[in-house]
Each structure stands twice: as structure tokens, then as C-alpha cells.
Amino acid sequence: MPHIISVHSFRGGTGKSNTTANLGTLYALQGYRVGIIDTDIQSPGIHVLFNLEPDAMKHTLNDYLWGRCNIEDAAHDVSGQIDPDMKGRILLVPSSIKTNEISRVLREGYDVGLLNDGFQRLIEQLDLDILMIDTHPGVGEETLLSIAISDALVIVMRPDQQDFQGTSVTVEIGRHLDVPKMMIVVNKAPAVFDEADIKRNVESAYSCEVAAIFPHSDEIMTLASGGVFVARYPNHLITQRYREVTGMLLAP
Questions:
Q1: CA Rg, the chain, in Å?
Q2: Matching InterPro entries, A to Z (predicted)?
């Protein structure tokens, strides 16, 4: 059975899209056919990590939502950007970065029900093993839909007070929607913080498993969204922790 994994954060800037890209890439390197869909239509950006240029986007998620194409027509095979000999595939459905397209979404909205149809069609038409949904931060109708249909929810947070309060909302939503598996990833933890304390405090606050803690990394800052971290640094501690998360998400 294909797995649907949503990656969410209550606010932007937590590293949600990077988390999605890194997990999806590791699955593809293991031989899975992975679809990644950018539903952060108001502020898309995951395509940058895969070096997919706007001019190369023949179709986007926006085109599907406006009835201009089938959703599978908006899928771009970006596997070669990672490894030309990759056993699996990475099929990315980006959202448009054109100003008029974003403005239209903000002005008119869209039929959220089409997303659910699109998710299922994407899995079927592209024969996906895993569909990863890069959600829009916060709480909206499209986010609730993505979480509701997911087999697993990864909540990305930073160890600060704003994220502590916002993450509690997301955890409660996940429980209310009966997501089968839910876990928290703590990102960009300063080196001066004790990881055991972070894990204990977060798990105590939300009664939700902390799958991994990712420390602040100069390598990530230097990469500056110019690629997918786990592909550039396969032996890094952060990559190893991402590998552990991939196993946890697919475990029975």
C-alpha cells in the first residue's frame, strides 16, 4: 500500500520544505518511487532544493487546480538532480511562483476537494510507493485535508516559545483527525541546548514522540537551499538522523 506522509509546521521558517525534500530523497535513494507535492501555494519553494528552474515548469499544481491539466502532467522527474543512476524516482509537483498565480489563489481561493482527488490520482497514475505532502504552514482547509488523509504526520518545530505554542495546535489537530502515526522533528537546535532536555521537554509537553533533533548546522547554512542536504552530505550526522526518521515513518 502506498504511504502518504504530510510534513507540517505551524509557522514558516522551521525547515519544513527541507525536511520534506531530505526524507523524500532518502526514500528514492532506497529504491522507492516518491511523489512530492508542494501545497504551500502562497509561498512555494521546494522546487529550489531540486534545482528545478521556473522556466522548466511546463505545468504546476496551480494548473491542475484551475483545470488546465491533469495533476500527473505537473509532475517533474527531478531524480537526475540527485543521482542519474538512482534506483528510485523523485517526481515533484511544484506550485507556481508567478505573481499573478499566487495573487489569484489569495484572491479567489480554489476547490480544496480537488486536492484529495489529485493526491489519489497522482499515486495511481505515477505508481507511487510514497507521496510526501509539503503543507502550507498554519491551519487552513487544505492543511486539514492533507493531514486527514495521511498515514503519517511529521511536525517540524524549532525550540522556541512561538513554536512551542503553535505546535500544540498541530498536535491536537493530528489527534482529532486520528492520524495513524505522528511524530515531531525539532530543527535548528542551538549547540548550547542539551538534546536530552529538548526531547524530554517536547515529549512531556505534547505526549508525542520526538523522532529526531537536528542541530544548527553551518553546512546547511552554507548550502543555502542550493541542493538537498542528504545528497550533498551522505555521511553527516544530520543525514544519519534523517535515515532513522525514514525508517520510523514506514515501520508498522
A1: 17
A2: DNA_Partitioning_ATPase, P-loop_NTPase, YlxH/NBP35
